[in-house]
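We emphasize that the prediction below concerns an isolated chain of 97 residues; any contacts that depend on oligomerization or on bound cofactors are therefore not represented. The input was used exactly as deposited, without trimming of termini.
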Amino acid sequence: MSTKNKKPNTKKKEEVNWEEFRKPWIKKKTGLIVIAVVSLALGVLTAAQIVMGGGGWGRAILWGFIFAAMVWLVFFGMAWFQGLLHGKPDDTTSNKK
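Result of the prediction step, given as a C-alpha cell string:
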C-alpha cells in the first residue's frame, strides 16, 4: 500500500456558461445542406439495396423516398421538440452590447 498523501483537489469549480451551450454548432444553411446530402445518399442506398435484392424499380424508388423523408421527419421533429423545451429567445433577455 502506498503511504503517499493524495493532493486535495484545490481547483475551484468554474461557473458554467449555459448560453454557450445553447448556441448552434453550425449554421442553419450548412445543417440543411448536410441533411439534404445524407437523406439523398441514404435514399439512394436503400433503393439500390432493394433493386439488388430482386425488388422492382417502383418499390425501390418508393422505399428510397420514404427512407429519405424519414430523415427529414426526424430533423424537423427534433427541431420542434427543441423549440418546446427552450422556446424562442426574448429580446429582453439577450445580451446586447
